Amino acid sequence: MSNTVTRGVRITVEPRYVPDQSEPESQSWLFAYHVTIRNESEVTVQLRSRHWIITSGEGKTEEVRGPGVVGYQPTLKPGEQFQYTSGCPLNTPVGTMHGSFQMVTDQGEAFDAMIDPFRLAVPRVLN
Fold first, then answer.
1. Residues 20, 18: Cα–Cα separation, whole Å
2. Would you list the DSSP string of 13-58?
3. 127 domain residue, yes or no
4. Does pLDDT of 127 surpass 70?
5. How far apart are the C-alpha atoms of 112 and 52, rounded to whole Å?
6. What pLDDT does residue 58 have?
7. What is the pLDDT at residue 80?
8. What pLDDT band is residue 70 in, cutting at 50, 70 and 90?
9. Pick from 69, 72, 75: nearest CA to 43
């Protein structure tokens, strides 16, 4: 799990392995991750884009950038939150993700809300 606060924007990520959509014999493991973005600041913020860094168990890194998350660019007033679930395929049973969401305040100030690293791992693969 990851729980990070940047300028009053709390981002919590809870990953899980999806065995029924994975094919270990083909070196394909799918992980889902549930993200909660909560505005704990005193200003309204909007998520404009995302940047993920995905690292496989072999150390190979892939970067994913794009507008919004799951088709949305949510605006959050103080105290509001937005949740979504997405997925990440890996060719190893273990990996990590981290990144940031590019945010802008209602005053037009841009900043990166950081997402601390979290582990993607098949249960019982790691001790």
1. 6
2. EEEEE-GGG-BGGGTBEEEEEEEEEEE-SSS-EEEEEEEEEEEETT
3. no
4. no
5. 12
6. 95
7. 98
8. very high
9. 75
Total count of domains within the chain: 1
pLDDT > 90 fraction of the chain, expressed in percent and rounded: 97
- Amino acid identity, position 77: K
| CATH code for position 106 | 2.60.40.1470
126 assigned to some structural domain:
no
Is residue 74 in some structural domain?
yes
Global pTM reads 0.94
Contact 15, 74 (CB under 8 A): no
Q: Which whole number is the average pLDDT over 32-60?
A: 98
Domain range for residue 45? 2-121
Question: Per-residue pLDDT averaged across 59-67, rounded?
Answer: 97
Tokens standing for residue 51: 């940047």
Q: How many helices (H) and strands (E) does the chain have?
A: 0, 9
CB within 8 A of 127, min separation 6: which ones?
none
